[in-house]
Amino acid sequence: MDLFDTLAKTFFDFQAMADVLPQLLQVGLVNTLVISIAATVIGCIAGMLVALMGISPLAWLRWPARVYTDLFRGLPAILTILLIGQGFARLSQQIFGPSPYPLGIIALSLISGAYIGEIFRAGIQAVDKGQLEACRALGMGYGPAMRLVVVPQGVRRVLPALVNQFISIVKDSSLVYFLGLLVSERELFRVGQDAAVLSGNLSPLVLAGLFYLIVTVPLTHLVNFIDQRFRTGRRKAVAPISGLREVAELETVGAPAEDARP
């Protein structure tokens, strides 16, 4: 019984959770979503640029894209955040003031850009090459063909992977606290950690973890739903073609029998 009480007080002190709940909602959750959404948007822009450079026929465009991707995918996220957050601190103070918030977003954007670039590249290269060749045959240049035909199809194919990447960014946003955020800029983990130190138990951190689950678990199910809809849509698109073929084969088989009648 003593062990149960100890665990309950350590992880499920509801009074400590209630005390930190307003901060988690008003400060931690808001900042976590702002960091994650901003890093994802910037990462998508950078990732698309890297993907297009990576599949370019020009070597002087492919190599920088390859180096960028290998660099930021190979380094641990915390190392990248610390190198950028501390290495450019003076420059950031001159531009953004004392807040390290923008540097944290930039670091996460560079990391996500490398992963999203590979996602976009795989999606674009999965589009049948005949699409591009058909566009060129119609007189479209390489740029318009990629922008209007190939890239939209590639992006549609990788939507589930993009949502998965956003989930990873939400979790990696907790690493930004190493840069020493201001009180008004603390994300979920930092708010929970500070409250855990003050209260003397881990209940605020458990509540912060629940907020992460509230954000990430529905997104995980959304990924599965989108992927299932895409697969179902492709099956429905193929089914009528298969049925027509079967009808044509039956008609072909039945034709000689009708001709043989007297």
Automatic annotation (TrEMBL):
Query: Where do the TM regions start and end?
Result: 33-59, 71-89, 101-120, 204-226
Q: Membrane topology type, per the record? A: Multi-pass membrane protein
Tell me where in or outside the cell this protein is found. Cell membrane
What domain of life is recorded for the organism? Bacteria
| GO CC, any one term | ATP-binding cassette (ABC) transporter complex
SUPFAM superfamilies (UniProt xref): MetI-like
> Which GO biological process entries does UniProt record here?
amino acid transport
Looking at the record, the residues that make up the ABC transmembrane type-1 domain are 29-223
Family named by the database record = Belongs to the binding-protein-dependent transport system permease family. HisMQ subfamily.
Identification of the protein by name: Amino ABC transporter, permease
The species this protein belongs to is Sinomonas atrocyanea
